[in-house]
Give the backbone structure.
Amino acid sequence: MRAAGIWLVLSVLGLLLIPLTMWAYPQYRLYSQRLAGEARLAEAQSSRRIAILEAEARRESAVALAEAEVLRAKGAAEANQILQDSLGGPEGYLRYLQIQALEETKASLIYVPTEGGLPMTEARRLKN
């Protein structure tokens, strides 16, 4: 009798547990999927914000580099204008640049243009 009572209680609990499990498991899956979706959405929004901040940083960097390049070019142009004016105009400045180039070259033979713009030719280039 006692074994039959235990068997009856276990059977009733089993019959109640099956429908409860059939209802609770789909609810749990929906809850779990919703949390996973929210986590993916939060990650995507975070990644998007990071990409936007990186793009803004690259843009600001490019603007600053461009401004620095413009300032450098203006300084070089002013320096060239001062040199040109102090050397008597464009011809004097070009002559100055030619002299600078001649000083920096390591060539053993230099052709100097004549009045006609043609180089002077040599009768003997190499001495034996």
Q: What stands out?
A: Residues 2-86 form the longest helix (85 residues). Residues 2-104 form one domain. The chain has one domain: 2-104. The helical segments are 2-86, 90-104.
